Known about the structure:
The protein is mostly helical. Helices cover 54% and strands 0% of the residues. Zinc ion (ZN) binds at residues 221, 223, 225, 232-233. InterPro entries: TPR-like_helical_dom_sf. This is SEC-C motif domain protein. It comes from Winmispira thermophila (strain ATCC 700085 / DSM 6578 / Z-1203).
Amino acid sequence: MDIPVLLRFFSPLRRELPCGVVIGTFKDVREHERLLRKAVRHLARHRTREALSLLKRCVTLCPSGEKAFLGRAFHLLGISLRRMGACGPALRAWLAAYRIRKEPRLRRRILSSLNEYGMLKQHTPEQDDWKAFYAIQVRRYLSSKRSAHFSSRAEKDMIDQLIWEYWRDVRRMYDLSSLSTTQKLQVFHDVEIVFPWMVFIPPEATPLEVPTPGFAPTRKCTCGSGLPFMLCCGRTKNSDELWIGSF
Length: 247
Ligand SMILES: [Zn+2]
């Protein structure tokens, strides 16, 4: 399954993921267990697509009171999504699982997967910086469109190219390795790319979350997850979380 198709498939869950509250319709707890066991078997045999389909049913049908079950289902959903290459949705699923069940093992998995921006770690710090800059600019672009989606691959390619050109300027102008995360985020947010006027409305109406001066990167998140704000609700969204519904 390619990523845009996968993300469309996952999109109905997006509303529930931030708080982990799901309205369920399962009548029998044994039905939860049966589905979950089947999903685990699929995962063990590398039938990720089948596992994903069952886990999606698990998290959408399970009553929010079944916390142990729901936390486990979101955790496995994250593993399936990661295997499919959908890093952003995988992270959302793990965060949802952690908010439901604060297991140290899951906390370690989440924290070891994240970089300083709260995005999934890349191979080098330079790639982490580029992904953060890219995600911030794509978000700005998409939030200016009524549909909030790319309409075609060609449109995405054009915007990608434009963002890449601005990124080369940013690298020329700043020694990013000497800046803190907060400073880099400020720089990335301050770069106002002139997107093609035909599809772009100026960004005044779409304020972005920029850490304020004196912002403590280790401040605990207000959602009660126990994770640092920068790695939880204040994290920079992975770009594949922003493409949901495109094309
Ligand atoms: Zn939070």
